[in-house]
User: Which sequence fits this backbone?
């Protein structure tokens, strides 16, 4: 999903990852049509290319504001497809060719000057970009919060100094963060000075104490980091190319690494379901030779799986765009029983309980407000810690259980799912 905003010199398209808080941006200089991609995900490459074509723009630069640990970067792949230059902070250990940019430097995007600010704290290689009164903060500053600092190389003390650099900018500066955990994709420096308890904290010792909290790491963090640093690169195959291979004589093993719930609702005929979180324990179920193509919903989990196979010497390719791209290409899917995703079940139940508690609290008794408060607190805890108790309970409900899914003689698929960890630091109450 993209949201377009325009100022006189530049336009900014915001892309939100479906079902997640990740935000990516396309900045276009309105005079020259030169463009800059900020934090594009690997599953958004096609979306960025479509946006460039729709705006008659050419991608000049692609940059990650830091080495992401929670999702796969699309910077290198997007640069390869468009001829753009990859930008990276000098502290980044990204392999391959990249132009290094650091705080105090500027570069030209057509007729627009882009200023670089060092923004360490979340990671040592974090940077922020200032473009025509807009600050792209990556995972340093969020709306009402901040990035967590418990990753390797993270530093609450460095983030404290980063905030002081941001604080020196005009109050009217529009902030575009790398994640949205509150339902609002932008803020301003002035608003964060007034409302963000972490941004307002001027006591370095207290700030460090507030952010010295360990939380669960993102799922598949090691594999994601290897991909994002250019240490692993899975090949891809387009849907129609894969269909051609399947129609021709030969042995193509189609590995679907989605959950059994997703697989049961729809899958490509002949695919074998081994969920990503069980793949390491079930490698012997893969055939000893022949082509392996890995499938998931969008290509993200498939990329992680392919790179897992690469480490044991088994070459695999990823279905580009996943099942969604296969469907868009009007290729056949075997459909089964469709179920509402667990995250949407959580949203429906929690939202209805908050609404019910609020209505009854206002019309019947104030005691019902505790119902709304209880579910509101649960959602806040889930967002801060990445652990959702309601989701874990729902996964055990009869309607969410999947019978053993046949995998053409290779066993059954078992799923253990949970809410993903976030990149946000726990936000303390305002003092």
Assistant:
């Amino acid at each position: 999903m993209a949201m377009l905003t325009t100022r006189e010199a530049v336009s900014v398209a915001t892309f939100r990852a479906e079902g997640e808080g990740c935000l990516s941006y396309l900045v276009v200089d309105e005079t020259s049509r030169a463009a800059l991609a900020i934090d594009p995900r690997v599953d958004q490459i096609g979306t960025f290319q479509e946006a460039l074509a729709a705006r008659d723009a050419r991608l000049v630069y692609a940059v990650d504001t830091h080495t992401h640990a929670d999702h796969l970067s699309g910077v290198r792949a997007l640069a390869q497809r468009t001829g753009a230059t990859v930008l990276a902070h000098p502290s980044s250990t990204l392999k391959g060719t990249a132009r290094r940019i650091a705080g105090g430097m500027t570069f030209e995007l057509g007729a627009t000057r882009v200023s670089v600010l060092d923004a360490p704290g979340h990671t040592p290689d974090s940077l922020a970009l200032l473009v025509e009164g807009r600050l792209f903060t990556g995972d340093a500053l969020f709306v009402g919060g901040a990035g967590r600092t418990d990753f390797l190389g993270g530093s609450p003390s460095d983030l404290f100094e980063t905030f002081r650099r941001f604080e020196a900018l005009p109050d009217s500066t529009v902030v575009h963060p790398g994640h949205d955990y509150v339902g609002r994709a932008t803020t301003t420096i002035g608003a964060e000075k007034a409302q963000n308890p972490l941004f307002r904290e001027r006591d370095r010792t207290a700030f460090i104490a507030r952010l010295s909290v360990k939380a669960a790491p993102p799922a598949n963090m090691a594999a994601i980091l290897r991909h994002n640093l250019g240490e692993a690169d899975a090949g891809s195959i387009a849907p129609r190319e894969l269909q051609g291979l399947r129609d021709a004589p030969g042995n193509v093993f189609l590995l679907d690494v989605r959950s059994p719930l997703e697989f049961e609702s729809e899958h490509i005929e002949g695919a074998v379901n081994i969920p990503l979180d069980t793949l390491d324990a079930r490698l012997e179920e893969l055939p000893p030779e022949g082509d392996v193509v890995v499938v998931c919903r969008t290509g993200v989990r498939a990329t992680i799986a392919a790179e897992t196979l690469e480490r044991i010497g088994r070459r695999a390719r990823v279905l580009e765009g996943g099942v969604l791209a296969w469907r868009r290409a009007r290729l056949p899917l075997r459909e089964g029983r469709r179920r509402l995703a667990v995250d949407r079940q959580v949203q429906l139940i929690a939202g209805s309980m908050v609404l019910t508690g609020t209505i009854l609290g206002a019309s019947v008794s104030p005691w019902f407000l505790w119902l709304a408060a209880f579910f509101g607190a649960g959602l806040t805890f889930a967002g801060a810690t990445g652990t959702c108790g309601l989701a874990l309970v729902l996964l055990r409900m009869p309607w969410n259980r999947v019978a053993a899914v046949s995998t053409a003689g290779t066993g059954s698929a078992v799923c253990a799912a949970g809410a993903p960890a976030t990149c946000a630091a726990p936000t303390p109450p305002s003092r």
The domain at 234-335 is CATH 3.40.250.10 (Oxidized Rhodanese; domain 1).
